[in-house]
Write a structure and sequence with these properties.
alpha/beta, Rossmann fold, 4 domains, 7-stranded parallel beta sheet, globular
Amino acid sequence: MSAAEILKTYFGYDSFRNGQEEIVQSILSGKDALAIMPTGAGKSICYQVPALMLPGITIVVSPLISLMQDQVKALNEAGVHAAFINSSLTETQIAKAMRFAAEGRYKIIYVAPERLETAGFMQFAQNGNISMVTVDEAHCISQWGQDFRPSYLKIVAFIDSLADRPIVSAFTATATREVKTDIECILKLQNPRVVVTGFDRENLYYSVEHIAGKHKDDFVLDYIQKHADESGIVYCATRKNVDNLYEKLLQSGVSVTRYHAGIDNETRKKNQDDFIYDRVQIVIATNAFGMGIDKSNVRYVLHYNMPQSMENYYQEAGRAGRDGENAQCILLFSAQDVMINKFLLEKKEFEGMAPDDIELVKQRDVHRLQVMEGYCKATTCLRNYILEYFGEKAAAPCDNCGNCHREYYEQDMTSDAKWVINCIAETRGRYGLNIVTGTLLGANRARLKEIGANTYKSYGALEQRSETDIRLLIDQMVAEGYIVQTSGEYSVLQMGDIRRLKEEGAHVIVRKAQEREETGNRTKKKKTDSLTGAGFDLFERLRQLRQVIAKEEAMPPYIIFSDKTLIDMCARVPENQEEMLAVSGVGENKYQKYGERFLQAIAAFLSENPNAVFSTQIDEEVVPTPTAKKGHSSISSAVPRM
């Protein structure tokens, strides 16, 4: 079979997405490959399709057990024989998996990097026919990446130990120029085909809300209640925040679970499965949760605290909308988030790293945190801020983020800026943001009296301003170089270059957002919006059937069929095998396993609703339904790509 035939037969898709075919053909021609593609862009297809066409075995190196298990389940459901080898298996099970692979029963083996140096696996690999080694989450091999794993360095020695060098392919969603270069060099990629499809996830709506303290709890609860029928993830920076928020939501009757490293392994696994299998709708988690979680129907990701880097945020927020449907990514920011992250970075461990490298990584960590803080305080297009960080040229404002949907006005705060300079001069650059802000506000705090700030000329000079106004002004002055904010253990505000501020006609302009009644709720239409009332009822009927089958098969529902596939079924209302196989995401193996039951459910619904109209969807990829239906209609139906 050709690559296109394999794509349709096993995975149910009519055509490749952007960048996929280029990578597939490069691998099939025997070339190494490096693909940098955003989450949800279909990276796995890029190595799974050629793996089925190459003569030998493909070894996929993957960092987490959950990632391997999800991928193997999905492959076996599609009719592809695959297995994983990691610490969740007994030695007997591992030996059996390697024996079956050697006999040709498995074309794809997922393996943890630590397994590569074991004697048993080395013997298997050296005696077997290894056509390709694929490195998933390849950014983990770079110490400049946000998820550096020393175990990934074992991959290089493993490849070098093989008698015949296989094709090497590497995939990641998050790579700056430095990390991309590291991947190429460390893996010793030979004249690789490098494909960067872009970092933009057009279906994601980004927003930052400036909310302090316990008000975050109220925002999260209100948001979840307004999205009661949707699945979501809420990320917190600390275990304490996870536990506190979990208890509050649980008491409010929310279908919720939690995940962090302080929970025992068995409970953590159960909680993760409850979320993946749709037994609960919401998971509250630290960043220990999520890498490799392929749950496709996550409709929103809320960040209770600011992450430590743009790489972390892009990866975590990217767990929303993996099915290509519209989703929201909302970050709740407060000044305390910066302090929390500085504390966490100070506690970061650098096992196995040289002292000089540790110092460089610490400097880069500080820079990443500053970039992330800049994102939270940006008044320009948030999507463009992300794209520029990853080296992609910004286009016009996206009109699909919180900042693009806010109205900003400019305020001249030059005279206020001079009082800020006076205050920093009086503190002699010894204190941080809280002291300076409190002094200018004339706050009645014991700490201010203790250091004598209540005797400064600047004490209370800006009492007519809000704390938010003063913080915005200081941010602007830092950006313009008038103030320097140090990055040490205790960040302080010091005098920068104030010569320009003394010039006649100098101005400090601050952009402020107009208050709105609603925040974070504007987004593009959902695909289900194209379904009529009858179409949505059918969608719910098919979702219920999917849940029943998932329980029978002990399988996550999205592996049976994604929401996107069910929506396409509702638009097409197939009545036979040929029409069902035309639905996006329905391959031959899945049709054989589940197709008849879904056809029966659709037929029963049509019988109950003989004159129903199911879809009014009109978009760029419109084709007529395969066969004209009698007694009901689907005005048009899109053929979504995978």
